[in-house]
Amino acid sequence: MSMFLDTAKIQVKAGKGGDGMVAFRREKYVPNGGPWGGDGGRGGNVIFVVDEGLRTLMDFRYNRHFKAQSGEKGMTKGMHGRGAEDLIVRVPQGTTVRDAETGKVITDLIEHDQRFIVAHGGRGGRGNIRFATPKNPAPEISENGEPGQERELLLELKVLADVGLVGFPSVGKSTLLSVITSAKPKIGAYHFTTIVPNLGMVRTQSGESFAVADLPGLIEGASQGVGLGTQFLRHIERTRVILHVIDMSASEGRDPYEDYLAINKELESYNLRLMERPQIIVANKMDMPDSAENLKEFKKKLAANYDEFEELPQIFPISSLTKQGLATLLDATAELLDKTSEFLLYEEADMEDEAYYGFDEEAPAFEISRDDDATWVLSGDKLEKLFTMTNFDRDESIMKFSRQLRGMGVDEALRARGAKDGDLVRIGKFEFEFVD
Question: What residues contact 135, with CB distance under 8 A and at least 6 apart?
């Protein structure tokens, strides 16, 4: 089984905030001691950190759930609970994180040690020391901790490489990579020898260096799932230059120019923006019979499909076996890289809006629906969070929650919808009677 994995779906859950405490100061020489319950601690965040040592998402194949610790509860003597430690999750460079529900890109992690909070921990609930007022100097009110953020994420690895090798199977991509770098890809005289992307570093004679990715061979119809499909083409999206490797000996009976057109068509079908990247045509296997004649014919057909004012792609005849023409090819590639800037990987529409972890003032505070058993159901982020953070073990906290509902206009809205005295109202799994 291949140990390379470039996509994964995981669930992350940040820690819940610690509950606040109800306590009172009772000391011999301190009359009317007053409230002394401390706040709960903050829940832990879930943080992704880029690790250069990782090359695959294999760690997420069997471990798909990541949960941070909850904050410590508040204590007596006004002591706050300890905040929980953040959960650090290490990911490889080039990992794109998407929200599984919306498909929007949350972040693109490409720099070593880059950190991003993918799930925020909840704040700690307030203890009764926070609710003391001149009218109520000894409140028996405390809050439960805020729930931590919970979300499902899609991880997608796109390897970091400056140059991508594309072409039909068995045109010599893996052999070329093994000759120009120290990489040791699998090489065989059969199709689809390479079934995972391989990376290598090139150093030219002039001292310049760049990363090259050898991608599993494309074939005609790959965009419709033929062969290995286009499942590995995501790895070429970060490249700035494409080396289009063509078997100029036509050893498998195909026309080199038809190969060139077919591969470009598959690149265009996968992502039209791949065609914006400059291409260098690598005419490989020039040590074979008929290669020189085929190259002449290839150049004629290529020129016939370009206007006289259009610039033709550069063509470099090479032989990976005899190392003919490699130095010239690598120098030209390095020169083209210097002139080519980074390509924008994601449009603004692909990115998730900047996260806001308060309440959306424009969103309705609550919604009312009717269940099949005639129970009124209250829902809404703001209302549900208030409910979750209410300590129902204390009468004063329940009364405070009741006042909050009234202040939000829940009572009036229920009356307007036809609720009568004694009707059941449900929030989550909690039910109570409506009192008119």
Answer: none
